[in-house]
């Protein structure tokens, strides 16, 4: 047995060698280490400011567990953060610690919340092997979409693997006492930031400018003089683009030849992304590249993933002056900057524009100040008048963040899915078992420990569970039996997927009422489900081209929205149109096409499983063809080629068929390599599958 002091020594050695920039622990980190959390076996919530080194503290706990012979899971909210952390933690492999994305095949597994939730549902042997769960961005437990997933995964983990330790890394929260009591955890809080943060509200009046954008130009000019960087948050994609163009035009004459050269190289990398995918740069790509020529990039969901990655990497490397971004970036990858500007403090919701929460303001502001680069960070809100500035300062700069409350019951799909999960995994056989589970969630804890709500806590949970159960029984997902509640075959399919109940019910209804399955109508139905990533319009140009495309498939619609744009895009993608052509045809953010098409291909397979359950077989033989066409973006004749030859792609596959036709039996490798992009290995792979040999 290795003694704890020997393990601590080894952990410190690994951290020192893996993070050479850390010469000594900062006061926040040291206070956490001094709390004894590495030796303690109880749960902990570590709450220190953004950029104060929370990751290293989580890693130290994970390494301690692993060196004792255990396994650790490091849970994060987003795939982008997962990829970043896997890359960062790979350095531990030289110490014999296997790093991956699943605990069945690694000592340190970096998992998104949904993946960890999945092992709490059905992989109990794997869950029981996990000795430590590190939850990054733990404050997101109060977020509407991902919060309930993490909340219920933790609740199930505490029931199924009570010996598993939890270390939660969080921003400071107002009601930390609630969370620590529910989690049965010690809390260590510290307000030290390696880079001091100064928050202020600027006005167009004080800055003697006509509009908010000119205030940002002044901040950018100061950044250029100081050789620092700026990150600006605005409310919409279109605003990120217009602001990037506006500021880039204003500063282009102030750039040195060296800067111009560096920015041009980044701009070319951006344009290379669509080119390598067989598409001309879209108008959005050209707009982005043009702004980057002057050191300003915009960042939003309508870009190619690779372009976003380039922008993030180049900004971190100091090769960009400024990024204009939508608020989603506040939860994304690590992207600190000396100056953070929050131009828009409202966000569009179904109820119209609403002020952002103080918590979100703090998250965005927390990006200011790069450890190791800046001696201070500055966060600026922008107002038009002094009165507005006074109100904003009072509410955001000096105001308290909102309490973190469970969103479990607000999110109806989360309630449905958790009930299905509990029944499918045999953890609940009666409504009473379900009441007990929900009572043990953070939602249940908050209800039962609130002096105004505790008296009707049980009645409230009982009502919510019974209402949800009624819906699930009515829709053939759960059925009462003499032996207790059980999932139907349809319910089990939902339980083992990550799709919403609404998606499953909608697709089952479509399968039930369709006399025959038409691909175009199925694609439109998929585009109306909440699990389909939607393609957005770029502006307010005519939407008639989308209507015309759907009409041509016999789909007649009154209103043209994002679902219709997505369906039309998918149809064109399967017709081998590239992103440039799709953007021009429909005026949409076509860079998202591949992601949507990939998800659509998976949804088609889910739909086929639903058909099998319903004993519907007529026309389902075409669903595999449809899934392949969506995945590869090809017409039917190319499917055998792109499926059989790895990484051939649709552009080169079409070139092969164009030259040689469908019969490749007598084609030689030499002839194949004459086609642009076909090398000897690819030629051999084609011959092996379709040649005479």
Salient structural properties:
six-stranded parallel beta sheet, alpha/beta, 693 residues, seven-stranded parallel beta sheet
How would you explain this protein's 3D organization?
- The protein has 31 helices and 17 strands.
- The chain has 693 residues and is α/β, with parallel strands linked by helices.
- It starts with a helix and ends with a helix.
- A hairpin with a 2-residue loop joins β16 (478-481) and β17 (484-487).
- α11 (257-276) runs antiparallel to α12 (283-292) and α26 (593-613) packs antiparallel against α27.
- The strands form four sheets. A seven-stranded parallel beta sheet has the order 3-4-2-5-6-1-7, with helices on both faces.
Summarize the structure.
The protein is α/β, with parallel strands linked by helices.
Largest sheet, described in full? 7 strands, parallel
Number of helices: 31
- The percent range for strand residues is 5-15%
Number of strands: 17
What is the overall shape? globular
| CA-atom Rg in angstroms | 27 Å
Secondary-structure content class: alpha/beta
Side-by-side strand order of the widest sheet: 3-4-2-5-6-1-7
N-to-C CA distance: 59 Å
Mean pLDDT: 92
Low-confidence stretches: none
Relative helix content: 40-55%
Note the topology.
Layout: H1 4-18, H2 27-34, E1 43-47, H3 54-67, E2 71-76, H4 79-89, E3 99-100, E4 108-112, H5 113-122, H6 124-128, E5 130-135, H7 147-160, E6 165-170, H8 176-183, E7 185-189, E8 197-203, H9 212-226, E9 230-233, H10 237-251, H11 257-276, H12 283-292, E10 296-299, H13 305-316, E11 322-325, E12 339-342, E13 346-349, E14 352-355, H14 358-365, E15 377-383, H15 386-397, H16 412-424, H17 431-439, H18 442-448, H19 457-474, E16 478-481, E17 484-487, H20 489-495, H21 501-513, H22 519-527, H23 544-551, H24 562-574, H25 579-586, H26 593-613, H27 623-632, H28 639-644, H29 649-660, H30 669-672, H31 680-690
Parallel strand pairs: 1-6, 1-7, 2-4, 2-5, 3-4, 5-6, 8-15, 9-11, 9-12, 10-11, 12-15
Antiparallel strand pairs: 13-14, 16-17
């Amino acid at each position: 047995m290795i003694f704890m002091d020997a393990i601590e020594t080894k952990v410190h050695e690994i951290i020192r060698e893996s993070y050479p920039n850390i010469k000594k622990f900062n006061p926040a980190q040291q206070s956490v280490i001094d709390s004894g959390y590495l030796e303690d076996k109880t749960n902990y919530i570590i709450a220190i400011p953004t950029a104060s080194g929370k990751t290293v503290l989580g890693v130290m706990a994970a390494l301690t567990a692993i060196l004792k012979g255990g396994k650790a899971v490091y849970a994060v909210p987003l795939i982008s953060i997962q990829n970043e952390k896997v890359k960062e933690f790979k350095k531990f492999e030289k110490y014999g610690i296997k790093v991956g994305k699943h605990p069945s095949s690694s000592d340190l597994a970096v998992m998104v919340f949904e993946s960890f939730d999945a092992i709490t549902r059905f992989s109990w042997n794997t869950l029981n092997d996990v000795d430590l769960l590190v939850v990054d961005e733990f404050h997101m437990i109060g977020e509407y979409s991902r919060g309930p997933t993490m909340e219920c995964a933790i609740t199930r983990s505490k029931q199924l693997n009570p010996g598993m330790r939890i270390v939660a890394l969080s921003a400071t929260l107002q009601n930390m006492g609630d969370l620590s009591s529910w989690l049965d955890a010690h809390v260590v809080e510290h307000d030290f930031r390696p880079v001091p943060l100064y928050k202020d509200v600027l006005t167009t009046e004080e800055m003697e400018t006509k509009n908010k954008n000119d205030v940002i130009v002044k901040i950018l000019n100061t950044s250029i003089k100081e050789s620092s960087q700026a990150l600006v948050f605005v409310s919409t994609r279109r605003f990120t683009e217009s602001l990037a163009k506006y500021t880039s035009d204003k500063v282009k004459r102030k750039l040195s030849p060296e800067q111009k050269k560096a920015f041009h190289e980044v701009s070319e990398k951006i344009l290379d992304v669509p080119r390598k995918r067989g598409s001309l740069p879209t108008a959005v790509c050209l707009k982005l590249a043009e702004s980057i020529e002057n050191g300003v990039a915009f960042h939003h969901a309508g870009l190619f993933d690779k372009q976003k990655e380039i922008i993030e990497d180049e900004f971190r490397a100091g090769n960009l002056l400024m990024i204009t971004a939508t608020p989603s970036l506040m939860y994304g990858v690590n992207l600190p900057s000396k100056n953070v500007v929050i131009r828009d403090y409202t966000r569009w919701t179904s109820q119209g524009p609403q002020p952002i929460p103080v918590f979100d303001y703090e998250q965005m502001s927390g990006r200011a100040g790069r450890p190791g680069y800046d001696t201070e960070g500055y966060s600026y809100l922008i107002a038009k008048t002094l009165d507005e500035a006074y109100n904003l300062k009072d509410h955001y700069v000096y105001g308290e963040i909102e309490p973190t409350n469970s969103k479990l019951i607000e999110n109806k799909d989360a309630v449905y899915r958790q009930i299905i999960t509990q029944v499918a995994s045999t953890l609940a056989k009666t409504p009473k078992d379900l009441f007990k589970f929900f009572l043990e969630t953070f939602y249940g804890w908050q209800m039962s420990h609130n002096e105004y709500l505790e008296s009707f806590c049980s009645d409230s949970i009982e009502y919510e569970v019974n209402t949800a159960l009624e819906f699930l029984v009515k829709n053939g997902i759960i059925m009462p039996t003499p032996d207790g509640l059980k999932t139907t075959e349809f319910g089990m399919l939902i339980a083992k997927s990550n799709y919403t109940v609404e998606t499953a019910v909608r697709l089952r209804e479509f399968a039930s009422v369709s006399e025959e399955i038409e691909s175009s109508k199925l694609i439109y139905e998929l585009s109306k489900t909440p699990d389909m990533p939607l393609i957005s319009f770029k502006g307010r140009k005519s939407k008639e081209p989308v209507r015309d495309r759907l009409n041509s498939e016999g789909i007649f619609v009154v209103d043209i929205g994002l679902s219709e744009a997505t369906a039309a895009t998918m149809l064109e993608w399967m017709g081998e149109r590239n992103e440039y052509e799709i953007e021009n045809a429909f005026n949409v953010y076509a860079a998202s096409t591949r992601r949507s098409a990939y998800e659509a291909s998976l949804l088609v397979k889910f739909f086929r499983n639903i058909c099998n359950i319903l004993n519907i077989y007529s026309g389902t033989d075409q669903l595999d063809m449809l899934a392949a066409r969506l995945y590869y973006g090809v017409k039917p004749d190319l499917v055998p080629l792109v499926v059989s030859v790895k990484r051939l792609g649709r552009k080169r596959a079409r070139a092969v068929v164009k030259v040689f036709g469908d019969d490749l039996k007598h084609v030689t490798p030499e002839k194949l390599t004459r086609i642009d992009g076909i090398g000897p290995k690819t030629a051999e792979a084609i011959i092996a599958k379709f040649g005479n040999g």
